[in-house]
Each structure stands twice: as structure tokens, then as C-alpha cells.
What does this fold into?
Amino acid sequence: MNHSSDKAASDIVLSLAVGVQGAQSDVGAFLDILPPETGVEILICHASDDPQVSAFERLAETRADLRLVAGAPGALIPEMWRDGFLAAQGMWVATLTSHCPPSTGWLARALLLVGTEAGKQHAAFGGTILADPDADPVGRGVHLLRYADAGPERARAHVSDLSADNALYRRDAVVACSDLLPDGFWEPNYHRRFLSAGFVMEHIPDLTVVHKNRYTAAEFRQQRRWHGRVFGRHRSAGRPRWMQWVMVLAAPAAFPVFAFKQTRKVLSHPELRSGFLGAALPFYGFLASWCLGEACGYGDALRAPRGKNP
It folds into this structure.
């Protein structure tokens, strides 16, 4: 991971770790929404083999508040976020992606949250992820699968989970999970750790971003397989061998169970139902890709030497 800085850590209140994968062309417009602000730094987190690195470098030359954080070749977004947490200078770190540009007023709201509304027990705030009204079926399918729980109808409340695609995290709470960091910032693992340590997380409805999908259907199916495989490894690792075999053998049942659960979730939100039929084919294709990846992850864990976390 390579990064450079010309600011003192004490100057920074909030670091924005923006994971860039598949929406490189939107980074310039993303930055236009976020004018330079005292106490804020922006970290463009990318894979070292991203074909647009030179374009990112040109952007960095135009803004003193912008730094590039280069991860491993082929890095996934949770790994980019991990790199962002380690490079960040702020007490709080926002996790974002270039697929979800912030709305007007996002930065002011974020600074208010971390400046005056954060209690000592707050580990995270999560916001709303709005659907793109002009999304095609692929984009709609991505949003329905990923962000059905982050809609505008959700009231402000303490929560047990939130989407890291629009969230603010207390950096020291994340870095304290040193055993989780090598794998990346896979947020459910950290959320469980926060809650077990007595921290709270809160959903903030007016902290909003808009989902602007730039993945093709094939790219997002691949992304779901990658992420599902990591999830499967994490879920199975450390369990007794007989339980790992049960998980492998039961894996074919995951798709119908997951499909039923996710369909019921979407249909339970009136604002999501209208676009569901047109997006159903990519939606279920993405679900199937995740389940295939999860099953492969169970196999990875089963093949790993005993006592080694794959």
C-alpha cells in the first residue's frame, strides 16, 4: 500500500475512504460534489493495477486534500477500505464507493455527526442509499440486492448492521480489530465485534448517497462470486470438520433460501416493488453468483489445514 501526505494528522477530523472499482470514470464528478473543507481529507483507494491510475494521479495534483491509496493488484473494495483506514489521519473515516456519490449536504451532515452527535459509545453511523431513478434493470437489480435495508423509509435508530457503502466509522474502533484487518474491512465481522464490545451503531436517514451503478451484469456477477467466497470462508473457518462438511453438502439449498429471504425483503418495501419485475432476472442471477461463491468458500475452509484461518 502506497500513500503520501503533506498534512499533520491533528488537522484532520474526517477521512473519506472512497473505494474505486468499476466506476473510475465517475471519480471526477464524485469529487466535484465535495469541495475542499477544513479538517477533511479524501483518499482515493484503488487497486495498484487499475488502468486509470494515471487519471487519479492527475486529479491528485489539482487538490491538496486528495491522496491516493494504492492496494494490492486486483484488490476488492473491502480491502481498499482496509487500506484507507490504515492510511487515514482522521479520528473518523467515511467508507464510500465511486458508485454511490454523496448528495448535496452530505459532507456537512457527516461533520455534524462526528463533531457533535457522536457519543463515546458510537462506533459507526450509516446512511441512506437512494436508487437511481434512471437505472437500467442491471442497476436496479444491484440496488435491490445490496441496499434494500438502506432505504429512505428507515427511521433513525440504533441498528445491528448497516451498509459500509455510506457509513462513518470511528477509526480506533476499527483498527482495534487487528485480527480482522489482514482480510480487509468486511463490515459484518466488525459490526459484530463492535456490538460485543458495547459500542452502538446508528442509522441516519438524512445522510444520503445515490447509487449509480457502473458494473455490467457480468462484472457484478463476478464481484458477487468473489465476495460470496470470502463470506463462505469466514463463515466456515474455525468450525469443527463435521460442521464444515455439513455446510458444503447443504450449500445447494442456499440459493432458494436466500432468494426467498431477499424477495420477501424487497416486496415488504412498497417503494421497491414497482421496479422489481423488470430487474428480477439480473437480481436472481446476482443471488446465484453469490451462492456459488459462498459454496466455494466453504470448500476453501474445508481444505485449509486445521488451525489455519483461510
Notes: The first strand starts at residue 14 and ends at 19.
